[in-house]
Design goal:
Elements lengths: L31 H17 L3 E7 L5 E7 L1 H7 L3 H7 L5 E2 L5 H12 L1 E9 L5 E13 L2 E10 L1 H23 L5 E3 L5 E4 L1 H7 L5
Antiparallel strand pairs: 1-2, 1-6, 3-4, 4-5, 5-6, 7-8
């Protein structure tokens, strides 16, 4: 699947101001209780998100490594426990039309730092759910990691498939007509015509 242009509006956790309601004065550091409150607020947002939120390792050659952290929604959607997912890693729970896409996307993450792509989320029951993933790469304690947010696009894919079926049905009806029929732009350019038109005019459909 092709990479899609990245978007920066899907990283509420990594961008913007710290998730604390209390501002600290210049020159002061937050105390342990403030840090604990901030952590718990962040953890609550992380685990209650409907989107899939994952953090995984990224090797120097773009190899996708193990999960480092993930939201509860990942466990719920995929049907695995947290420990199982941390052990098996991303490769076992993703499905691409072309297996080489994994390494290509990994390299793109490393080079571009922000990418968007589509992937099938492979559940424990072997069901594939289409997701659109925004990934952002950053350094953490000397490691290169990817922060990913996945959004279920099942409805969009179903709508696209229905539109394609409708277009095919329309073309079939159009070609089955025994009368001359064609579609023309306002400037007189013929966009398409049916088989009857081509036959009577001695033309070939392209």
């Amino acid at each position: 699947m092709a990479l899609i242009a990245p978007s920066s509006d899907r990283y509420p956790v990594t961008q913007g101001t710290p998730l604390t309601s209390k501002k600290t004065n210049p020159g002061t550091e937050p105390n342990d209780s403030e840090l604990a409150r901030a952590y718990h607020r962040l953890k609550e947002l992380f685990d209650t998100s409907r989107d899939l939120i994952m953090v995984h390792e990224l090797g120097p050659d773009g190899t996708v490594g193990n999960f480092l952290d993930l939201s509860e929604s990942v466990c719920r959607v995929l049907g695995y426990s947290r420990d199982e997912l941390l052990e098996i890693g991303p490769a076992r729970v993703t499905a691409f039309d072309d297996p080489s896409e994994v390494s290509r996307i990994g390299r793109a993450m490393l080079e571009q730092r922000e990418v968007r792509f589509e992937v099938g989320a492979l559940t424990k029951q072997r069901e594939i759910i289409p997701y659109e993933v925004d990934a952002k790469v950053f350094e953490r304690e000397g490691e290169t990691v990817a922060f990913c947010i996945g959004r279920d696009i099942s409805d969009r894919k179903a709508a696209e498939a229905e539109l394609q079926r409708s277009e095919l049905a329309l073309h079939a009806f159009f070609d089955a007509l025994n009368e001359v029929a064609f579609i023309m732009e306002v400037d007189g350019t013929v966009v398409t015509s049916n088989a009857t038109t081509a036959e009577r005019l001695g033309m070939t459909l392209e």
